[in-house]
Amino acid sequence: MTQSVTTADGRQSPSIPPWLRKTAATLLTVAVTILGLLFVTFMIGRVMPIDPVLAVVGERATQAQYDETFAALGLDQPLLVQFGIYLRDVLQGDFGRSIRTGQEVATDIARVFPATFELATLGTIIGVVLGVPLGVLAAVRRGSWIDQIARFVGLIGYSMPIFWLGLVGLLVFYGILGWVSGPGRVGIFYQGIVEPITGMLLVDSLLRGEWDVFKSAFSHIILPASLLGYYSMAYVSRMTRSFMLEQLSAEYIITARVKGLSEWQVIWGHAFRNIRIQLITVIALAYANLLEGSVLTEIIFAWPGIGQYITTSLLANDMNAVLGGTIVIGSIFVGINIFSDLLYRFFDPRAK
Amino acid sequence: MTKKYTFVALALSALISGAAITTASAETPPNMLVIANRIDDIKTFDPAESFEFAGADVSRNVYEKLVNFDPLDLDAGYQPQLAESWEISEDGKTITFTMAEGHVFSTGNPVTAKDAEFSLRRAVMLNKTPSFILTQFGFTPENVAETIVAPDDNTLVLTLDKPYALSFVLNCLTATIGGIVDMTAAMENEVDGDMGNAWLRTNTVGSGPYKVVDWKPNESVLMDLNPNYGGDTPAMERVIVQHIQESATQRLQLERGDIDVARNLSPEDVAGLADVDGVKIVDELRGRLMYWSANQKNDMLSDPNVIAALKLAADYEGMSGSFLKGQYTVHQAFLPKTFLGAIDDKPFSFDIEAAKATLAQSAYPDCGPIKISVRDAQERIDIAQSLQNTWGQLGCDIELIVGTGAQTLDRYRAREHDIYLGAWGPDYPDPNTNAGTFAFNPDNSDEAGATGLLAWRNAWDLPKLSEKTLAAVVENDTDARRAMYKDIQTEFQNSAPFGIMFQQIEQNGMRSNVENFVAGGATTAVSYWVITK
């Protein structure tokens, strides 16, 4: 049903429904954010004191080959024109070709992003499943040995460099104990067996019914995912503890206890219920950080993810690849923010 | 590798050294070779375009050439491969190849002279970076129809613009760009007149022992046997090269038996593997040289006595015996050992008193400010710091300008450096590859823009040496040619504003049952087809 409002001069005009206005505003924000991100990244890439032409033609190229490539890359155009051309291509779905891999950037990203997505998702699940209960327990048993352990675990997670823990984990669990498989996504005997569906090896091997591949892939992912999960857990448990302590000291908790509710109901039914909204933001941020790509973890575990892809491309001045990766990462951040915003509305009646 | 990663590698090396790897459960199958290597430099498999180390490793095992090296006897030089014989005309300008029989592409098509004609022509016409290896003989996109001709399926005729040493031409044909591709398959996949270039970047159609069946950039290359290969069937039916960035990770995999060969081990990890059962280290001299060079636009650095003093004030043995131990050996000539005409003379050793005396004879007895331009690679920074220390003892005020590879290279190509510290590897296995850049500069003007020539980059005008270098490429008597390069190098050592310091040693770790692993020496790339386990 179309609504109308009366304007100052008394005429009736159709009003825009609030949901449509909000959606339009959100889309506009997303577009401006990504456009700004693209512009800044593009300009940084162009003003960096390294030569993209040399990255293509190599040290041995003649001046004629250099000049030809310079023009072919469009570098003879003004910067804004270059950006305009790039933007036009991106809007048509063309991210250009990576000079480092020789392949379309979109193809590269479609190959590397699922690897990071799979790793980050598993890492986040581990972090949340362990971190939230640990944080709640630490708050409820404040000052106890559980609290001390939780704080110690969090401290280690914050202070220990991830590459160090990764290497030690690899040495102990792969090198010495042999409990997990080594670097890479899957054992060499299983490479290329599973035809990609989602690009996530765990999922694809299940969908294809390839149990041996699944076991090998799981054996490869569990160590880096646990490592990332540990860092997520450290962050999530610390924040959960902090949120819970605030709630547990609130008057309504005393009231609940006075009313004779069980401790379980008090903690999970009242206190925890009220920190869900804050936790959503915390978990979303932790997840987004892992999706951005844990470069060092990917390098140590030879995990061909987007973090390693962007970093290596940046060092090689492969700007098409860097920009393509930036768009993906930027979109993910924006997407996760929108998603957490929606969840916020779902859980918080006031936001509705 | 950045400092951070180096720290990581060192840290894990220290850890591994203290912890015994007791579980060696895995073992690769006897007919499969698994290699850990840094392969993130592979951009293309097209032999007309490929010019990177890891790409050359693949290409050598996938594409055959008219002439090629026997991996088990590299010193023998080029041998017949797709061409069974060749003749050179009396005027020295025409080489006629007779094709060998029995070579078949992985597609099933037989290799003919028409394929060779197509492959060499397209390499010239595509004009990619390595094309200079062929165009230096006068081939141009405009004249290849007349200069590279296959009158029939069995004969290929190359017509050069002037007489060259036959060994020079044939050595160049052993380079990656000499790989012969299947014309039919390439043209079936041609797009916009690219002669199959885009398709051949990710697909291989050679007649070599292997074919690439899967390539995931930055991840792995998988090669299977070419079922139509004309030679003896290789023992390794499948070769997998995994991209493993970290030395420490490669070492762990090697110790556990998950890989057969580790190709990027740090000195610390090599030392740590010395006493490990089931693992061996194989050293191989490669062609890469480490050198410094002085810009002759700088007045002080154009004084021969200053240059001589700097050469005497470098601690060659100290560096090769410490942080470069096992990775580089002292070498002071521009031709790597094992090249035709290479010399092993080492006229310079660290002698600070002699260096000071030499500097005193110059117009700059107190030396002065010198900037060393060096890229952010650990071994180069270590060398630069050593030079900073010992040259500092001469009274020079040394400043290190550390930058990315591209930054330092930009400055070098623009002739804006004082001292450049860098590395140089041969492009093809002929002495002219280095003589033609270190000791050749026909036009020293800025306008010449000869950025490919190291002598030009350092603004070094050397008309007589340039003439000698030109004379050496047309000398057909191999012994005489060898002598000419020895003479050029001796003169170069005495007069050049270049300080050649080291030649690379590649230390590959491998399981003790791996035999015949040849990384390619100074002249070529790795050969998987002779490896056994």
TrEMBL record, chain A:
Location of this chain's protein in the cell: Cell membrane
Segments traversing the membrane: 24-44, 119-140, 152-177, 217-236, 279-303, 323-344
PROSITE patterns: ABC_TM1 (PS50928)
Keywords associated with the record: Cell membrane, Membrane, Transmembrane, Transmembrane helix, Transport
Membrane topology: Multi-pass membrane protein
Molecular function, one GO term: dipeptide transmembrane transporter activity
Major subcellular location class: membrane
ABC transmembrane type-1 domain boundaries: 113-344
CDD domains per UniProt: TM_PBP2
Entry annotated with the keyword Transmembrane: yes
InterPro entries per record: BPD_transp_1_N (IPR045621), MetI-like (IPR000515), MetI-like_sf (IPR035906)
Gene Ontology cellular component list: plasma membrane
UniProt cross-references to SUPFAM superfamilies, sorted A to Z: MetI-like
PANTHER family: D,D-DIPEPTIDE TRANSPORT SYSTEM PERMEASE PROTEIN DDPB-RELATED, DIPEPTIDE TRANSPORT SYSTEM PERMEASE PROTEIN DPPB-RELATED
Family stated for the protein in its record: Belongs to the binding-protein-dependent transport system permease family.
Protein name: Peptide/nickel transport system permease protein
Protein species of origin: Yoonia sediminilitoris
From TrEMBL, chain B:
Gene3D superfamilies (alphabetical): Dipeptide-binding Protein, Domain 1 (3.90.76.10), Dipeptide-binding Protein, Domain 3 (3.10.105.10), Periplasmic binding protein-like II (3.40.190.10)
GO molecular function, a single term: peptide transmembrane transporter activity
Subcellular location: Periplasm
Solute-binding protein family domain span: 78-444
The entry's keywords: Signal
InterPro entries: Peptide/Ni-bd, SBP_5, SBP_5_dom
Major localization class: periplasm
Signal peptide coordinates: 1-19
One of the GO biological process terms: peptide transport
GO terms under cellular component: ATP-binding cassette (ABC) transporter complex; outer membrane-bounded periplasmic space
Protein family according to the UniProt entry: Belongs to the bacterial solute-binding protein 5 family.
Name listed for the protein in its UniProt record: Peptide/nickel transport system substrate-binding protein
Species annotation: Yoonia sediminilitoris
